Amino acid sequence: MSDYQTIRLDIAGDIATITLARPDRLNAAPPAMFDDIRAAIATLPGQARALILTGEGRAFCSGADIASDDGAQSVAGGERARNALTSAYNPTLLALARLPIPVVSAVNGLAAGIGCSLALVADFVIAARSAYFLQAFVNIGLVPDGGASWLLPRLIGKARATEMMMLGERLPAETAAEWGLIHKAVDDDALMVEARTLAARLAAGPTLALGLIRQQAVAALEQDYATAMAAEAEQQHKAGDSADALEGISAFMEKRKPVFKGR
Q: What span, in angstroms and rounded, lies between the C-alpha atoms of 189 and 177?
């Protein structure tokens, strides 16, 4: 368990779970929540080999907190919103993207705005069938943030990304899976079982190689063919010197299942 104010961090074996813990506000995210997430994930390398992100209650995350009761945690207002993005939200999303262990999002309900970006930064997004994704910014006269305008066209193409961002309508989990936005939609009561099963599989894998694959997948979106191949060669050098690579090759030669140690 953790001492964070807006999230819970639990580590069981090689799997860490971060649970957004403001269920009374549908896990609306003040900057402090993303500060908590960033602080939590900084402790994970060496402690965990996979991470699950999920929300408590009826929502994954309803977006940035723009209407807190006392206004103390609100991010309403242009200058305040920009400052929150540059100091809290964006650095946390970048830290998650650069985390050297696999990430699974278990989307248990609404994932809106910055909450949608948070869910989609994972390598695998599993959503309950009752869940949905929402780019609601246009409905209140704002623009997408948290990297949504970069990520969505790359995941689902410009036409569908534009539909999400400019119409501001709910995208049900099953449609999100059909579009390729997420890994899969599952029955609500199977969500955490599916997420933990996948996280366990990833945690048992070659952690260094999986972290490098995460880096490759993001970097290659902006690289030309030759640059991507050169980057792969350098990363293969790093992976090839790992104990897990030695174990994998030995297991292959000995016709047995490898036992990776994450190093």
A: 18
- The half-sphere exposure of 165 on its side-chain side, counting CA atoms within 13 A, is 21
Query: Residue 124 pairs with which residues in a beta bridge?
Result: 104
CATH number of 7-203: 3.90.226.10
Cβ within 8 Å of residue 184, ≥6 positions away:
126, 127, 177, 194
Q: Is the dihedral of CA 64, 66, 70, 72 positive or negative?
A: positive
105 contacts 125 by C-beta, under 8 angstroms:
yes
Of 112, 113, 137, 108, the closest CA to residue 125 belongs to 108
Q: Give the largest CA-CA distance in the chain.
A: 64
Amino acid at 52: I
To the nearest 10°, report the CA torsion of 62, 68, 74, 76: 80
Q: What is the pLDDT along the chain (263 residues), one digit of tens a residue?
A: 458 999 999 999 999 999 999 999 999 999 999 999 999 999 999 999 999 999 999 999 999 887 665 444 566 678 888 888 889 999 999 999 999 999 999 999 999 999 999 999 999 999 999 999 999 999 989 899 999 999 999 999 999 999 999 999 999 999 999 999 999 999 999 999 999 999 999 999 999 999 999 999 988 888 888 888 888 888 888 888 888 888 888 888 888 888 898 88
Helices (H) and strands (E) in the chain, counts: 11, 10
Please list, in sequence order, all residues whose beta carbon lies within 8 angstroms of the beta carbon of residue 142, skipping any fewer than 6 positions away.
Answer: 81
Q: The dihedral of CA 19, 32, 86, 227: what is its sign?
A: negative
